C-alpha cells in the first residue's frame, strides 16, 4: 500500500469522530459552497460534495436545508479559508486549515496555542511544501476489482485506490477533484463522501514523552471552532 493508505490508517478520521464538530464543519462548508456557486446542488458541484459528506456523518436533512437557506441570506457572513503553518516542539511541522469570519480572532488564537505549548507559528510557505495536497473520494465496495478500477481512473488523475472496512477510497492530487467527481457521477457510481487532505512527505518518530508534548498543542488547536483540519509530520503511534 502507498502513503495515502498509511496516512488514512494512522489518522482514522479523528476529527470526524466528534459529531458536533463534524456538523459545525459541514455547516461552514455549506455556507462557502453556496456563496461561491449558489444554492442549487445540481448546478453547484462543491455543494453536491458537501451534501454527500453530510450524509456520511448522519447530519439530519433539515439541518442541511436550514444551512443552505441561511447561506443565501445576504446578512450571513462568509467564511474565509486561511492556512497556518508552524512547528510544534521537537521539530514537528504543523499545518492548520481554518475557515473564519474573523481573521484577527483566528490569528490571535492560533498564535496563543503555539506560544503556550512551546511551539513556533511560522510564516507562509514555511512548512506547506512538506505536505502533498490531495483529494479523496469514498465509494461503496460492491466487490469491484480494485486494481482494475485503479487502472481505469489513472487517466483521470487517481494515484492510489484501496479498500477498507467502509468502502473504496480513491486518492488523487488536489487539482484532479473536479475531473474524478465528474467521471464518478457520469458512471452512476455513488460518492459516499469526498474531501481534501494534506499528506506529510516524511514523518518523524518521537518518544512517548515527546509525542505527548506535540499532542498537547494539536488538541488545543483542534478545540478551536475556526479550525477545520490539523496535519503534522509526527509518526502516528
Describe it for me?
- This protein has 237 residues and is of the alpha+beta class.
- It has helices at 3-11, 19-37, 45-56, 61-71, 103-116, 146-153, 177-186, 208-222, and strands spanning 80-88, 92-100, 120-121, 131-139, 160-164, 167-173, 193-200, 227-232.
- The protein has a domain at 3-72: Arc Repressor Mutant, subunit A (Orthogonal Bundle).
- The strands form two sheets. It has a four-stranded antiparallel β-sheet. Strands 5-6-4-7 form a four-stranded antiparallel β-sheet, sandwiched between helices.
- α2 (19-37) packs antiparallel against α3 (45-56) and α2 crosses α4.
- The chain is globular, with a radius of gyration of 18 Å.
- The two termini are 18 Å apart.
- The model has no long low-confidence stretch (mean pLDDT 92).
Secondary structure topology:
Layout lengths: L2 H9 L7 H19 L7 H12 L4 H11 L8 E9 L3 E9 L2 H14 L3 E2 L9 E9 L6 H8 L6 E5 L2 E7 L3 H10 L6 E8 L7 H15 L4 E6 L5
Amino acid at each position: 500500500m502507498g502513503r495515502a493508505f498509511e496516512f488514512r490508517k494512522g489518522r482514522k478520521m479523528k476529527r470526524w469522530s466528534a459529531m458536533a464538530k463534524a456538523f459545525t464543519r459541514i455547516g461552514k462548508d455549506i455556507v462557502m459552497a453556496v456563496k461561491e456557486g449558489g444554492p442549487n446542488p445540481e448546478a453547484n458541484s462543491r455543494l453536491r460534495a458537501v451534501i454527500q459528506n453530510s450524509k456520511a456523518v448522519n447530519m439530519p436533512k433539515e439541518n442541511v436545508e436550514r444551512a443552505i437557506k441561511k447561506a443565501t441570506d445576504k446578512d450571513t457572513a462568509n467564511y474565509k479559508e486561511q492556512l497556518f503553518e508552524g512547528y510544534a516542539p521537537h521539530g514537528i511541522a504543523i499545518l492548520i486549515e481554518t475557515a473564519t469570519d474573523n481573521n484577527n480572532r483566528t490569528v490571535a488564537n492560533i498564535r496563543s496555542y503555539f506560544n503556550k505549548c512551546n511551539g513556533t507559528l511560522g510564516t507562509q510557505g514555511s512548512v506547506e511544501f512538506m505536505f502533498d495536497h490531495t483529494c479523496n473520494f469514498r465509494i461503496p465496495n460492491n466487490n469491484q476489482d480494485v486494481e482494475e478500477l485503479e487502472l481505469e481512473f489513472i487517466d483521470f488523475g487517481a494515484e492510489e485506490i484501496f479498500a477498507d472496512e467502509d468502502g473504496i477510497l480513491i486518492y488523487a492530487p488536489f487539482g484532479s477533484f473536479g475531473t474524478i467527481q465528474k467521471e464518478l457521477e457520469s458512471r452512476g457510481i455513488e460518492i459516499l463522501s469526498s474531501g481534501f487532505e494534506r499528506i506529510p512527505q516524511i514523518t518523524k518518530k518521537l518518544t512517548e514523552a515527546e509525542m505527548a508534548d506535540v499532542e498537547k498543542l494539536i488538541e488545543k488547536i483542534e478545540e478551536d471552532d475556526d479550525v477545520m483540519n490539523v496535519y503534522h509530520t509526527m509518526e502516528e503511534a
